[in-house]
Amino acid sequence: MADVKTGEDAWNRGDYAAAVREWEGPAAQGDPDAQFRLAQAYRLGRGVTRDLAKAEMLFGKASAQGHLEAGDFYGLMMFDRGERAAAMPYIRSAADRGDPRAQYLLGIAHFNGDLAPKDWVRAYALMTLAQSAGLPQAAPAITQMDQHIPLAQRQAAASLAAKLGEEAETNRRNQLAAADLGSRIVPPAAPASAAPASPPRGSPPAPARPVVPPRPAQVATAGLPSTGAVPTGLPPAPLPAPLPAPRPPFGLAQAETPPAAPAPSDPGDMAEAPPPAPRPVVRPAPRPAAAVATATGPWRVQLGAFGVASNADALWARVKGRPEIAGHPRANVKAGAVTRLLATGYASREAANRACSALSAAGIACLPVQD
């Protein structure tokens, strides 16, 4: 019998074809978790021929059932292939929950005034939040904005960024709590025109895609589709480099070739040891390794939310030795049919964000939350 967990186990040991076989049945029966994982297989081309159209379709189906990460991928994939107006409700929804990639895109849209109302204060605030989360494309974007946005508006953006950050934390908590309780999270509906608006809370997107009006004159970019012209009266300037590939799903490893061991800080470290001295030297016994102190603090890093508790065990076994996790006690939070896996004891939001940035760079999805 096909099983999502069995498929995940196969994926984690590198048997992608077996994982796909396990997920196809549940996905066809409407299991959003299976649809999400199968979409990842098609997106990455593992166990199946790479098919971005099929991946996007599966992300859309899972998103329509309230799968938050699927909605994030769905919006990013639509944006990447040029359906920017249709993608914006998903981008806005993800930005409202603090996703730095979405904050980056929405910030550019508010700066240019094409896919969102022109609002330089909000644009700068969103880009500030994306930069604080460690998104590398945000820093050059802020440098560009600094050339155009007056100082008074940038100062106002600092206060707005703090407010938006608090609202994103509240939204994230509420939606995670809803998922824990088995509540269906309604995805944003596709817009009827290119003018963005707050994500509707109505029914899921219709299968037919809306007609997107012709794009305005665009600013040249390095790979990422431009979000339109810079505001009227300003000279055009290139936007930042493209966003990185979206993160992998909770509980699924990227299964890339393991990174090479870091080079020693001094080339002499790799030299052969000198020959022993003529007389033996009595060396003191090595000191035992210091125990890793148990961290305490109000912030936690959520590593995943699982319908099968053993999946949380498998992920913890994979990450517990990483420096971002070592010394941080594990917590399993059971709510209804879902088990949330968390590493606890981070002293501040900044510490949790730094840990998440490093984990995301290694292909491990996470989310900072507060006790």
From TrEMBL:
It comes from Novosphingobium aerophilum. It comes from the Bacteria. InterPro entries: Sel1-like (IPR006597), Sel1_AlgK (IPR050767), SPOR-like_dom (IPR007730), SPOR-like_sf (IPR036680), TPR-like_helical_dom_sf (IPR011990). Gene3D superfamilies: Sporulation related repeat, Tetratricopeptide repeat domain. Residues 197-216, 233-249, 273-287 have a biased composition (Pro residues). Residues 187-289 are annotated as: Disordered. PROSITE patterns: SPOR. Residues 293-371 form the SPOR domain. This is SPOR domain-containing protein. One of its GO terms (molecular function) is peptidoglycan binding.
